[in-house]
Amino acid sequence: MRTISRYYLGEDKMTEQSVLAEARKGKDDKKVNERLCAAYYYLGVKRLVAGKRKEATDYFTKSIETGVKDFDEYSSAKALLELMEKKKI
Predict the structure, then answer these.
(1) Which pLDDT tens digit goes with each residue over 33-79?
(2) Is 66:74 a contact under the CB 8 Å cutoff?
(3) What pLDDT was estimated at residue 62?
(4) 57 with 89: CB under 8 angstroms?
């Protein structure tokens, strides 16, 4: 997802809101959900790295709530939440 890369690199004045707005574009609900699953996950990772555990937890939970179980981001969000809960990260 180029949008996430641009956000991580600080290009084009990308914000969390603009990442999510980009992910929500389109009329195909399945594709939108897939993009949201990834966007929430990567926003959560960025928050976790920044030490903002509550916000990271919120994003990982939203990633899982998309129900896109065949995406790596879905599984990774579940794994990170479990590790956070066990205080392993």
Answers:
(1) 999 999 999 999 999 999 999 999 999 999 999 999 999 999 999 99
(2) yes
(3) 98
(4) no
Helix and strand numbers, DSSP H then E, in the chain = 5, 0
Separation between Cα atoms, residue 52 and residue 63, nearest integer Å: 17
Checking 2-6 for CB contacts under 8 A at 24+ apart, the result is: 3/39, 4/38, 4/39, 4/42
CA 17 to chain centre: 12
Task: Name the token pair of 70.
Answer: 């065949």
Residue 18 token pair: 């603009």
> If you search the block for the tokens 């928050």, which residue do you land on?
47
Kindly state the tokens that stand for 23: 């992910």
Instruction: Tally the C-alpha atoms within 13 A of residue 16's C-alpha that lie toward its C-beta.
Output: 11
For residues 76 and 64, give the distance between their C-alpha atoms in angstroms, rounded to a whole number: 9
